[in-house]
Design brief:
With 201 residues, the chain is α+β, with helices and mostly antiparallel strands. It has one domain (2-62, 78-191). 44% of the residues lie in helices and 13% in strands. The protein has seven helices and six strands, in the order H-E-E-H-H-E-E-E-H-E-H-H-H. The chain has helices spanning 2-33, 81-89, 96-102, 135-138, 148-152, 159-172, 175-191; strands spanning 38-44, 50-56, 106-108, 118-120, 126-128, 144-146. The strands form three sheets. The chain has a two-stranded antiparallel sheet with strand order 1-2. Strands 3-6 form a two-stranded parallel ribbon. The protein has a two-stranded antiparallel sheet with strand order 4-5. Strand 1 (38-44) and strand 2 (50-56) form a beta hairpin. Helix 1 packs antiparallel against helix 3. The longest helix is centred in the first third of the chain and has 32 residues, at 2-33.
Protein backbone atom coordinates (compact mmCIF):
# COMPACT_ATOMS: atom_id res chain seq x y z
CA UNK A 1 0.00 0.00 0.00
CA UNK A 2 2.86 2.38 0.80
CA UNK A 3 4.48 1.65 -2.57
CA UNK A 4 1.27 2.36 -4.49
CA UNK A 5 0.71 5.54 -2.46
CA UNK A 6 4.23 6.66 -3.39
CA UNK A 7 3.52 5.93 -7.06
CA UNK A 8 0.32 7.98 -7.06
CA UNK A 9 1.97 10.88 -5.24
CA UNK A 10 5.10 10.79 -7.39
CA UNK A 11 3.19 10.42 -10.66
CA UNK A 12 0.63 13.12 -9.89
CA UNK A 13 3.13 15.61 -8.49
CA UNK A 14 5.57 14.87 -11.31
CA UNK A 15 2.94 15.51 -13.98
CA UNK A 16 2.06 18.89 -12.46
CA UNK A 17 5.64 20.07 -11.85
CA UNK A 18 6.97 18.89 -15.22
CA UNK A 19 4.10 20.37 -17.29
CA UNK A 20 6.15 23.41 -18.45
CA UNK A 21 8.95 21.06 -19.54
CA UNK A 22 6.51 19.09 -21.68
CA UNK A 23 5.78 22.21 -23.72
CA UNK A 24 9.48 22.97 -24.24
CA UNK A 25 10.34 19.38 -25.14
CA UNK A 26 7.37 19.01 -27.49
CA UNK A 27 8.36 22.20 -29.31
CA UNK A 28 12.00 21.10 -29.61
CA UNK A 29 11.09 17.65 -30.99
CA UNK A 30 8.57 19.08 -33.46
CA UNK A 31 10.78 21.91 -34.67
CA UNK A 32 13.75 19.63 -35.29
CA UNK A 33 12.23 17.44 -38.01
CA UNK A 34 8.47 18.01 -38.01
CA UNK A 35 7.76 14.42 -36.93
CA UNK A 36 5.46 13.23 -34.14
CA UNK A 37 6.21 14.41 -30.62
CA UNK A 38 5.37 11.14 -28.87
CA UNK A 39 6.39 7.55 -29.54
CA UNK A 40 4.24 4.70 -28.22
CA UNK A 41 5.20 1.08 -27.60
CA UNK A 42 3.43 -1.98 -26.21
CA UNK A 43 5.17 -3.21 -23.06
CA UNK A 44 4.79 -6.17 -20.70
CA UNK A 45 3.39 -5.20 -17.33
CA UNK A 46 2.75 -7.07 -14.12
CA UNK A 47 1.92 -10.76 -14.69
CA UNK A 48 2.42 -10.32 -18.43
CA UNK A 49 -0.37 -7.78 -18.99
CA UNK A 50 0.37 -5.68 -22.07
CA UNK A 51 -0.01 -1.91 -21.83
CA UNK A 52 0.94 1.06 -23.97
CA UNK A 53 3.87 3.16 -22.81
CA UNK A 54 4.60 6.61 -24.19
CA UNK A 55 7.85 8.55 -24.55
CA UNK A 56 8.94 11.78 -26.14
CA UNK A 57 10.34 10.70 -29.50
CA UNK A 58 14.14 10.63 -29.44
CA UNK A 59 14.80 8.92 -32.79
CA UNK A 60 14.08 9.69 -36.42
CA UNK A 61 10.44 9.07 -37.41
CA UNK A 62 11.54 6.19 -39.69
CA UNK A 63 14.01 4.69 -37.18
CA UNK A 64 12.55 1.16 -37.27
CA UNK A 65 11.42 1.02 -40.88
CA UNK A 66 14.34 -1.10 -42.11
CA UNK A 67 15.61 -2.78 -38.95
CA UNK A 68 12.47 -3.34 -36.89
CA UNK A 69 12.61 -2.81 -33.10
CA UNK A 70 16.23 -2.56 -31.96
CA UNK A 71 17.59 -1.19 -28.69
CA UNK A 72 19.66 1.95 -29.19
CA UNK A 73 23.40 1.36 -29.46
CA UNK A 74 26.24 3.69 -28.53
CA UNK A 75 26.36 6.68 -30.92
CA UNK A 76 23.24 5.32 -32.64
CA UNK A 77 22.68 7.35 -35.84
CA UNK A 78 18.91 6.99 -35.46
CA UNK A 79 18.92 9.21 -32.36
CA UNK A 80 18.30 12.90 -33.12
CA UNK A 81 20.35 15.72 -31.55
CA UNK A 82 17.34 16.65 -29.42
CA UNK A 83 16.89 12.98 -28.57
CA UNK A 84 20.47 12.68 -27.28
CA UNK A 85 19.78 15.35 -24.67
CA UNK A 86 16.44 13.79 -23.75
CA UNK A 87 17.92 10.31 -23.36
CA UNK A 88 20.95 11.47 -21.35
CA UNK A 89 18.70 13.22 -18.83
CA UNK A 90 15.82 10.67 -19.03
CA UNK A 91 13.42 13.47 -19.98
CA UNK A 92 12.20 11.36 -22.90
CA UNK A 93 10.48 9.20 -20.27
CA UNK A 94 8.45 11.97 -18.63
CA UNK A 95 5.20 10.72 -20.28
CA UNK A 96 5.59 7.51 -18.27
CA UNK A 97 4.58 9.50 -15.21
CA UNK A 98 1.04 8.98 -16.52
CA UNK A 99 1.62 5.20 -16.67
CA UNK A 100 2.79 5.35 -13.05
CA UNK A 101 -0.18 7.43 -11.93
CA UNK A 102 -2.62 5.05 -13.65
CA UNK A 103 -1.04 1.93 -12.19
CA UNK A 104 0.54 0.39 -15.31
CA UNK A 105 3.98 1.05 -13.85
CA UNK A 106 5.68 1.85 -10.58
CA UNK A 107 8.39 4.43 -9.94
CA UNK A 108 10.81 1.61 -9.05
CA UNK A 109 10.83 -1.86 -10.56
CA UNK A 110 12.24 -3.96 -13.40
CA UNK A 111 12.39 -2.36 -16.84
CA UNK A 112 9.22 -2.87 -18.88
CA UNK A 113 10.15 -5.16 -21.77
CA UNK A 114 8.63 -5.13 -25.23
CA UNK A 115 6.67 -8.29 -26.12
CA UNK A 116 8.85 -10.64 -28.12
CA UNK A 117 12.20 -9.19 -27.02
CA UNK A 118 15.15 -11.48 -27.59
CA UNK A 119 18.51 -11.96 -25.90
CA UNK A 120 21.90 -13.17 -27.08
CA UNK A 121 23.59 -15.84 -24.97
CA UNK A 122 27.37 -15.96 -24.48
CA UNK A 123 27.66 -18.59 -27.22
CA UNK A 124 25.85 -16.37 -29.70
CA UNK A 125 22.57 -18.27 -29.43
CA UNK A 126 19.46 -16.08 -29.74
CA UNK A 127 16.74 -16.85 -27.17
CA UNK A 128 13.42 -15.19 -26.31
CA UNK A 129 13.62 -12.97 -23.23
CA UNK A 130 10.74 -14.89 -21.65
CA UNK A 131 12.91 -18.06 -21.74
CA UNK A 132 15.69 -16.46 -19.68
CA UNK A 133 15.95 -17.44 -16.01
CA UNK A 134 14.22 -14.89 -13.81
CA UNK A 135 11.71 -13.64 -16.37
CA UNK A 136 8.64 -14.92 -14.51
CA UNK A 137 9.89 -13.64 -11.16
CA UNK A 138 10.52 -10.11 -12.46
CA UNK A 139 7.02 -10.05 -13.99
CA UNK A 140 5.48 -10.63 -10.56
CA UNK A 141 5.77 -6.89 -9.83
CA UNK A 142 4.94 -3.75 -11.75
CA UNK A 143 7.67 -2.59 -14.12
CA UNK A 144 9.45 0.57 -13.05
CA UNK A 145 10.71 3.85 -14.41
CA UNK A 146 13.96 3.12 -12.59
CA UNK A 147 15.39 0.16 -10.71
CA UNK A 148 18.44 -1.79 -9.66
CA UNK A 149 19.25 -3.05 -13.16
CA UNK A 150 18.67 0.36 -14.76
CA UNK A 151 21.04 1.98 -12.27
CA UNK A 152 23.74 -0.59 -11.60
CA UNK A 153 23.94 -2.99 -14.56
CA UNK A 154 26.21 -1.98 -17.46
CA UNK A 155 24.01 -1.00 -20.38
CA UNK A 156 25.21 -3.62 -22.86
CA UNK A 157 25.21 -6.77 -20.69
CA UNK A 158 22.83 -9.63 -21.42
CA UNK A 159 19.25 -9.84 -20.22
CA UNK A 160 20.29 -12.79 -18.03
CA UNK A 161 22.69 -10.50 -16.14
CA UNK A 162 20.11 -7.72 -15.81
CA UNK A 163 17.46 -10.17 -14.63
CA UNK A 164 19.70 -11.01 -11.67
CA UNK A 165 19.37 -7.41 -10.50
CA UNK A 166 15.61 -7.56 -11.08
CA UNK A 167 15.25 -10.74 -9.04
CA UNK A 168 17.31 -9.21 -6.24
CA UNK A 169 14.98 -6.21 -6.21
CA UNK A 170 11.85 -8.38 -6.12
CA UNK A 171 13.24 -10.25 -3.12
CA UNK A 172 14.60 -7.23 -1.23
CA UNK A 173 12.13 -4.50 -2.19
CA UNK A 174 11.16 -2.06 0.52
CA UNK A 175 9.93 1.50 0.84
CA UNK A 176 13.39 2.62 2.01
CA UNK A 177 15.11 0.96 -0.95
CA UNK A 178 12.68 2.63 -3.37
CA UNK A 179 13.44 6.06 -1.88
CA UNK A 180 17.18 5.43 -2.19
CA UNK A 181 16.92 4.33 -5.84
CA UNK A 182 14.74 7.37 -6.67
CA UNK A 183 17.34 9.69 -5.12
CA UNK A 184 20.16 8.07 -7.13
CA UNK A 185 18.06 8.35 -10.30
CA UNK A 186 17.59 12.09 -9.78
CA UNK A 187 21.35 12.46 -9.33
CA UNK A 188 22.01 10.63 -12.62
CA UNK A 189 19.46 12.83 -14.43
CA UNK A 190 21.12 15.99 -13.09
CA UNK A 191 24.50 14.71 -14.30
CA UNK A 192 23.04 13.73 -17.70
CA UNK A 193 24.69 10.33 -17.58
CA UNK A 194 21.83 7.91 -18.31
CA UNK A 195 23.41 6.96 -21.64
CA UNK A 196 26.75 5.93 -20.10
CA UNK A 197 27.54 2.36 -21.10
CA UNK A 198 29.25 1.42 -17.80
CA UNK A 199 28.89 3.29 -14.47
CA UNK A 200 26.30 6.08 -14.51
CA UNK A 201 27.49 7.75 -11.31
Amino acid sequence: MAKRALDIAFGGFGLIVSAPLWLVIAAAVKLHDGGPVFYGQPRLGQRGRIFQVWKFRSMRPDAERETGPLQAAENDPRVTPVGRVLRATAMDELPQLWNIFCGDMSVVGPRALRPGEIDSESGGEIVPADAVDGFAERCAVRPGLTGLAQLYAPRDVSRRSKFRYDRLYVRRQSFALDLRLIAVSFWISLRGSWEERERKF
